[in-house]
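Table S7 (text form). Paired inputs.
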Amino acid sequence: MARFDYTIEYKPGKQNVAADALSRRPDHVIAAISSITFEPKLREAIVQAYAQDPVFATVTPGTHGFRLDDGLIYKDDRLCIPADSAVQSQLLHEHHDANLAGHIGRDKLTAALKRLYLWPGMAKAVREYVASCPTCQRIKPTNQAPAGLLQSL
């Protein structure tokens, strides 16, 4: 850096638009959340659950944006997850409780899952999962104003 001639200039808040836009890009997410890698057991559970699923059992690859890749059904590059509570809860656990995920809240978890997966009732499943997470309930921030100074009686 010594070879370059540069000056550091402070730009307050709203004037520093470029840096703010870069820091909020949705494609810059944690690697654990942004990549789809499965244990072989989970992959097999998804493939087997397609047969019992009322929505995805009748899907024909090549129509309405669906495609079949190695036994898994994708729609618009999002993996279709069958209505199997064990599969869904495992995905929720991996994207919410993993060390790199950091117990992200309901809205961020829903957004992260919607980028990768598709299943009917996802928002409700996420809402119920986060509401039942004991860690999230313990560390949930308060939405009340501070109590203020003590007043003498």
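Next pair, protein 2 of 2.
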Amino acid sequence: MTEIYKTRRLKIVSSIFIAIIIIGFITLRTPDYNYTLTVEQTINGLSLTENAVNASEAFKLMASNNNKCLFLDVRNPHEFLTNHIENSINIPASEILKEENFNYFRKMDQENISIIIYGNDALQANGARMLLNQLGISNVKLLTVGFNTLLQV
């Protein structure tokens, strides 16, 4: 009699396990975004000075206003409203992967407009730059000084 109960339990547990596996495969999604760079390419991109803009270059770009560059502020909206680079746009780092924002970055890339990312410091901006580079947006540059430092220069 106990063997029958063990067999029933085993069948029930096996059925539940198989059902969980099937549900897992059914609900499995493909990622919305795919990385385009290898780890080596990403690491090599970190050391390139062509992907960086220092304070004096930033001031020149702001003065020229030739519509070939866009300053992207990745700080939170409150900090942006308090003070920001003129004609810059604010997309917080946490919202970069929203579909409308990512499509905007693709459009800038297709139009060959450089996106210069800045935040409170270069570390905050670098995360957003690396993410966009990984996702195939090639015209992204990093402001090597934070916004507060830029104000003091």
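The mean pLDDT is 85.
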